[in-house]
Specification:
Elements (H helix, E strand, L loop, with lengths): L1 H23 L26 E2 L6 H12 L19 H13 L3 H8 L4 E6 L2 E8 L8 E8 L13 H4 L8 E8 L17 H15 L4 E5 L1 H13 L4 E6 L7 H12 L19 H11 L1 H8 L1 H10 L1 H14 L13 H4 L2 H12 L4 H11 L2 H4 L12 E6 L7 H7 L3 E7 L5 H4 L1 H22 L1
Length: 458
C-alpha cells in the first residue's frame, strides 16, 4: 500500500508539474490570421487607392454641438472636500464647457488639424485615415519610415507636436523619419468594422497591409497605450516587417511575471531580484498598487464588456464625452492631480489642445466604435491566441514614464528578450502631447541602436 501511495503521489506531482509548466510556457503561435473583410459589402481584390483627405465638418454638426453645450442638464455639485477623487469634478467641468462654448473656435482648429498631409486608403474593407509627413530637408540623410499609433482616449491629435521633431534632421544623426500616423479603425476618421472580431491582433494585420500598400515593406514602429499593444501583436505575428519597436507603454502579461512580482515582494534582497531597488515603490506594496490599478481601470471593464451601452450616453452628450475623457488626462498624467481643484490639466496642456482631441471623437460619432476595441481585444477568443504571452524578438526599446503603467526590468526582459534600450523619465501616459521632445529624442536614440544592430547582422 505504501508503494502504491508513493507512486500515486509521484504521479500527482508529475502531473501537477506538467500542468504548471504548460501554464507558464509561452503558447505556440496561432495559425496565420485571415485577411478578413471588415467593411460593408462584398470583398474585392482591387488595388488599394490612396486618396487625399481634408477635415471639413458641416455647419449642421457644429450647430448641433453648440445647442447641446448650451442646453445640458444642471451639473450635480461635487461633495465637500472632494476634487477629482470621484471622477471629473463638475466645477472644473463647468469651466471647460464654458470655454468650449465661448472661446473654442472649431474652424480655426480645423485649419490647424489640416496642417499635415492626410489621406485615406481602403484596407480589408476599412477606409483608414492617416497623416503622412515627409521631411522637408533630407539631403544626405537616410529617410526611415516610422509607423506611429495612438491609443484610447487619444487620437492622431496627440502627435501634432512630435511630428515636426521626428521629420526634422537632428544634429549628429544621419537619418530622419517619414511618419505615417493612422487613426485606429473605429477612431476619428478611420471607419469601424461592421462585424465582430477586430481586436489588436487583427488590427496589426490591417496596419501591416496598409503600410505595404503605401509602399513600405519594412518599417520602424512606435506606440503608447493601445498603439503599443497593437504593435506588440504586430512584432510577434509579423517580425519580418518590424525593423524595430519603440514603446512608451511596454506591456507584460505573463504568469511568470505575476508570480515573480509576488515572490519578490517577500524576498526583495535576493540576488535574482526582479524589481530594481529604486523602483520598489512603483510595484509594492502590491495590495496598494492593485487597488490603484483597479480604481483607474474601471473604464476598461466597461468598454471590454458593454461598449455599446456605454456609447449611447457618451455619443449623445458632448459634456459627458468631455468628462469621461478628460478625467483620464488628469490621473493619467499625474495621479496626484486627483487632489487638485483644476485637475492639474493646464500645467502641461491647454483646454484648446484637449478639446481638439475630444472633437475628433464628437464630430466623427466614434465613441462607441472606439470602445469596441477593448471588447474585441479582451474577448476570450482573442485572449486565447496568447500573443501577449509570447516573447517579442524584434529589437525593442522601452521608455517608462514615472506616472504611467509600469513593468519592472526583470519582467521586461522576459517579454522583450531583445530589449536594447531602456529609459526612465518623469512624465505621464500621454507622452507625445506632454513631452514631445523627450519622447522624440528617445525614438531617435533607439532607432540609431536598431540600425547598428542591423548593420552587425547584415
Amino acid at each position: 500500500m505504501a508503494k502504491v501511495l508513493l507512486l500515486l503521489i509521484a504521479g500527482i506531482i508529475a502531473l501537477l508539474g506538467f500542468r504548471i509548466n504548460s501554464f507558464l510556457k509561452p503558447p505556440p503561435l496561432p495559425p496565420p490570421l485571415e485577411n478578413t473583410w471588415w467593411g460593408p459589402g462584398k470583398p474585392n481584390s482591387g488595388q488599394a487607392v490612396v486618396k487625399p483627405f481634408t477635415i471639413n465638418i458641416s455647419d449642421q454638426v457644429l450647430k448641433d454641438l453648440q445647442w447641446r453645450l448650451e442646453n445640458h442638464r444642471p451639473f450635480t455639485p461635487p461633495l465637500e472636500g472632494i476634487q477629482q477623487q470621484y471622477g471629473m469634478n463638475t466645477n472644473l467641468l463647468k469651466k471647460i464647457v464654458d470655454f468650449w462654448k465661448n472661446e473654442y473656435d472649431w474652424r480655426k482648429r480645423e485649419k490647424f488639424l489640416n496642417q499635415f498631409p492626410q489621406f485615406t486608403i481602403n484596407i480589408q474593407g476599412l477606409d483608414l485615415h492617416y497623416i503622412h509627413v515627409k521631411p522637408k530637408k533630407s539631403e544626405g540623410l537616410k529617410v526611415l519610415p516610422l509607423l506611429l499609433i495612438h491609443g484610447w482616449p487619444g487620437s492622431v491629435r496627440e502627435f501634432y507636436d512630435i511630428l515636426p521633431i521626428l521629420t526634422t534632421p537632428q544634429k549628429g544623426r544621419d537619418f530622419v523619419f517619414e511618419v505615417i500616423a493612422p487613426h485606429i479603425p473605429g477612431y476619428g476618421f478611420s471607419k469601424a468594422a461592421v462585424r465582430p472580431g477586430l481586436g489588436a491582433a487583427q488590427i496589426s494585420l490591417v496596419f501591416k497591409n496598409m503600410m505595404q500598400a503605401i509602399g513600405f515593406q519594412r518599417f520602424y514602429a512606435q506606440g503608447g497605450d493601445f498603439g503599443s499593444i497593437i504593435l506588440q501583436h504586430m512584432s510577434v505575428l509579423y517580425p519580418e516587417v518590424v525593423l524595430g519597436f519603440h514603446s512608451n507603454m511596454c506591456v507584460v502579461n505573463t504568469p511568470q511575471a505575476y508570480l515573480k512580482y509576488f515572490l519578490n515582494s517577500f524576498l526583495p534582497s535576493l540576488p535574482w531580484w526582479y524589481v530594481k531597488p529604486d523602483h520598489y515603490d512603483r510595484v509594492y506594496p502590491m495590495g496598494e498598487h492593485f487597488m490603484l490599478r483597479l480604481r483607474e481601470t474601471g473604464y476598461l471593464h466597461l468598454q471590454a464588456t458593454k461598449p455599446d451601452t456605454l456609447g449611447v450616453g457618451i455619443n449623445d452628450s458632448p459634456v459627458g464625452l468631455a468628462a469621461y475623457i478628460l478625467e483620464k488626462f488628469t490621473t493619467g498624467t499625474n495621479k496626484a492631480w486627483m487632489e487638485e481643484e483644476d485637475g492639474g490639466l493646464t500645467k502641461v496642456f491647454t483646454y484648446t489642445d484637449l478639446l481638439d482631441n475630444i472633437m475628433l471623437y464628437w464630430v466623427t460619432n466614434s465613441a462607441t466604435t472606439s470602445f469596441r476595441l477593448y471588447s474585441e481585444t479582451f474577448s476570450k477568443a482573442h485572449m486565447d491566441l496568447g500573443i501577449t504571452r509570447r516573447p517579442v524578438t524584434v529589437p525593442t526599446a522601452c521608455i517608462r514614464f514615472s506616472n504611467d503603467f509600469y513593468a519592472a526590468d526583470g519582467a521586461l526582459r522576459e517579454t522583450y528578450p531583445n530589449l536594447v534600450h531602456l529609459t526612465d523619465e518623469e512624465g505621464g501616459h500621454f507622452a507625445a502631447m506632454q513631452l514631445p521632445r523627450v519622447l522624440a529624442d528617445d525614438v531617435f536614440e533607439s532607432v540609431e541602436i536598431f540600425q547598428n544592430i542591423h548593420k552587425k547582422n547584415s
